[in-house]
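User: Before I run my own analysis I want an independent prediction to cross-check against. Here's the chain; please return only the structure tokens and, at the end, one sentence I can use as a sanity check.
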Amino acid sequence: MFYRYHDSPLGRLLLAGDAQGLQQLYMQLDSKPWRIGEHWHAASSELDAVCQQLDEYFAGRRQRFELRLAPQGTVFQQAVWHALQRIPFGQTTCYSALAEQIARPRAVRAVGTANGANPIAIIIPCHRVIGRDGSLTGYAGGLPRKALLLKLEGAQLPEQVALAL
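Assistant: Structure tokens:
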């Protein structure tokens, strides 16, 4: 596994992947130190495409990532993460709609849990999931980061959130 740090408008990111694709993209959080695996190696050029596409996204020049992804999770989590990737740039959805998409309409809470366990933030756009009432709901990277990502994408934000930015 190769890893690399990458600076972004959201702060420092940790990227990790191997020949199968990108497996992790985490934001730095004060409460949760990063763990670098014992057998991980600092990337030389292995994660350059990820960094380039992230930079293009943050500069407003990319709306869709074209990367090989290899997130590790259960079959259910994989289904949720795949559904997240189908949410168009600049649009939002809610947990119940995601549950419907994966044909598990009663699994709304489990969808929320899988969303929160997304190991490839930003690229698998879990930030595009909001409350059914339009409120910004939990985000592992923090609600201010979620709001900034949605604003960067031009998504319609609830008025109280838009005023706070």
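Sanity check: The chain is about 30% helix and 15% strand.
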